[in-house]
Amino acid sequence: MSSAEKLRNLPAVDEVLRSPQLSEEFLSQPRPQLVEWIRNAIARCRGELLNGKDLTSDEALRYVIEETGRQQRQENGRCQQAVINATGILLHTNLGRAPMADSAISRMRESSGYANVEMNLTSGKRSGRGERACRLLQQLAGAEDAVVVNNCAAATMLVLQAVASEREVIVSRGQLVEIGGGYRLPEVFAASGATLKEVGTTNRTYLRDYENAISEQTGAIIRVHRSNFYQGGFVTEPDIADLVALGKERNVPVIDDLGSGCMTDLSQYGLQEPTVPGSVQAGADLTLFSGDKLFGGPQAGIIVGTSEFVEPLRRNPMMRALRVDKVTLAAIAATAEIHLSGRATEELPLLQMMSRSAESIHETAQRVHGEIRVPPGAQLQVVECISEVGGGSVPGSSIPGYGLQLTGTDSELMAKLLRSEAPAVLGRISDDTVILDLRTVAADQIPTLIVRLQAALDSAGVPS
Ligand SMILES: *Cc1c(COP(=O)(O)O)cnc(C)c1O
User: Fold this and answer.
1) C-alpha of residue 291 to centroid of ligand 1, in Å
2) Any ligand 1 atom below 6 A from CB of 224
3) pLDDT by residue (tens digit) across 239-281?
4) Distance, CA of 263 to CA of 239 (rounded, Å)
């Protein structure tokens, strides 16, 4: 058969669309999307035919339908949706960092229609954008003023540009971090127009190193929190209070890029992390942190500090490009209220998870274990798990808890099955076993987790 004859067996797009083999669910997708998948599938089928494959028209149609389904499944995987985080990483960057509080979620919903984002309803007059959120953040941080931008990277850019454009910013060599996702401090400096003035060495930087680096060119001193790695051994660096004292003496502003945005002392959980109020109290002119790390809110960059430095940021031309929407402002305000009312441990999912005792997680793990029917050949065990904060916060943290370990199955296949239906359950694979850490699974997700785990086990087919 010539190539031209073979290609006659290729189905047309319309013919595929009329095929009774397509599911309702498939046909409910937007039309241009369906047509694109089908066209791609036909092109693939054409390639096969030209490569010498022989397919009757029925076989070609079946090939195209199968290939179309494969493309749809790929696309489904891209579709942003709720997942169950059984990785044990509390702030998982790939899973959207901090899960938000119920009150923040309902305030976001309320604000998604018309909302008085720039209007005071009592006076009927125009107000500053997100005034309420900023006032709450001021109170929470103990600072004179606050502004909110898109994320902490934007906050760093804005602040460096405003305070130190075309001037030098002094930073310790031990703090020139890469946060991940291509965010490297030296590049942020370059993009903001500030010049990096590195001082000290990787492991030891003294106050006198900063002092010696101050000149006519100096625009600011910055301290960058080592969010995602830690140093031990022969290390030293001045603390923020020492930098502030030096800055005051030499009239140089001090910026504290905290990143993680810890609001309270976490030592009760065995974690050491500098806090936002601590930085403000130490006298930093500007303190920067993310909204979706330990603050437990939406993605945002929060800048708190003295009026002298914060107020001009509102009028900075970059501000318009970096500002956040009404929905984010609503969630920030709701989250700040929770912190201010002292209800963070009860109401912020992140702190709820962090504060759960290992015993209570152990009980949950045993309950789940008792409910699952394990097919012959596989074993499910309750095991100790070490969770971590993650997401560029509290480097090196380890929080002991419990989870479930599944052995005797094809772990890659099991992980895939656990991801294949909604809500996807994401665990981790270790030594060819699947581990589900239960610290990061909320109590109300446990029944769903049981259903999904059982379904995955039932369809896995355990090797004998
Ligand atoms: C995480 C982090 C950032 C970046 O914050 P985003 O909100 O992700 O943009 C900047 N600086 C430090 C120190 C951080 O930890």
Assistant:
1) 10
2) yes
3) 999 999 999 999 999 999 999 999 999 988 888 899 999 999 9
4) 18
For residue 451, the CA-to-ligand 1 centroid distance in Å is: 37
The CATH architecture assigned to 83-95+353-459 reads Alpha-Beta Complex (3.90)
Say yes or no: CB of residue 225 within 6 Å of ligand 1.
yes
pLDDT tens track for 160-176: 999 999 999 999 999 99
**Which is the closest atom of ligand 1 to the Cα of 292?**
7
List the beta bridge partners of residue 429: 434
0.85 exceeded by pTM: yes
CA of 414 to the centre of ligand 1 (A): 34
Minimum-distance ligand 1 atom for the alpha carbon of 228: 15
C-beta atoms surrounding 18 within 10 Å: 10
pLDDT tens, position by position, 401-425: 999 999 999 999 999 999 999 999 9
Cβ of 302 closer than 6 Å to ligand 1, yes or no, is no
Pick the CATH number of 102-347 from 3.40.640.10, 3.40.190.10, 3.40.50.1970, 3.40.1790.10: 3.40.640.10
Per-position DSSP letters for 225-271, written without gaps between them: ---S----SS-B---HHHHHHHHHHHT--EEEEEES-B-S--GGGT-
Query: Quick one: tokens of 48?
Result: 């096969």
- If you measure from the C-alpha of residue 296 to the centroid of ligand 1, how many angstroms do you get, rounded to a whole number? 14
